[in-house]
Amino acid sequence: MVDKKGVFRTLEALIAIFITFMFLAFYLPQQREQARPEAPQGILSGLRDNEEFRNCAIQKNSTCINQSIEKNLEDKYDFKFNLSEDPNAAPPTLPQKRVYANSVFIAGNMTNSTSLVVRLYFWAKS
């Protein structure tokens, strides 16, 4: 009778360990995945087809570009943009946070055959 109690206690301990590992294997990784913030996708891809934004970029009008981005980017983000003809241009000074980046290449129009790269850097407001 004493040996049966020992076997059942050992079996009970093994089942408890198994349940604990199953909890750790399924529950904890899901918590980490949910905690990662998702960046909004395609901010500049929507503006790429906007004729007003394209004209602002071709004219290198920073105020107009700034307003267009503010309209399309959620209020919970701060941003900076870089407008240059050099595709390898250095980014502006950015904060020590998780920074997301989007870029779009603008090839000009019929009267102005310039090629520009608009890069958008954005991050969550504090």
Q: What is the gist of this entry?
A:
The protein is of the alpha+beta class.
Q: How is the main sheet built? A: 3 strands, antiparallel
Total beta strands: 3
Structural class: alpha+beta
Rg, Å, rounded: 27 Å
Shape: rod-shaped
**Major β-sheet strand ordering:** 1-3-2
- Range of strand content: 15-25%
Distance between the termini: 65 Å
Q: What order do the SSEs take from the amino end to the carboxyl end, as H and E?
A: HHHHEEE
Helix content: 40-55%
Q: Count of helices?
A: 4
Mean pLDDT: 82
Provide structural commentary.
The chain is an alpha+beta fold. The chain folds into two domains: 1-28; 43-124, no CATH class. Helices cover 47% and strands 19% of the residues. The protein has a three-stranded antiparallel beta sheet with strand order 1-3-2. The chain is rod-shaped, with a radius of gyration of 27 Å. It starts with a helix and ends with a strand.
Task: Give the SSE layout.
Elements: H1 2-35, H2 43-48, H3 51-58, H4 62-72, E1 77-84, E2 100-106, E3 116-124
Antiparallel strand pairs: 1-3, 2-3
Output the keywords.
three-stranded antiparallel β-sheet; 2 domains; rod-shaped; alpha+beta; 4 helices; 126 residues
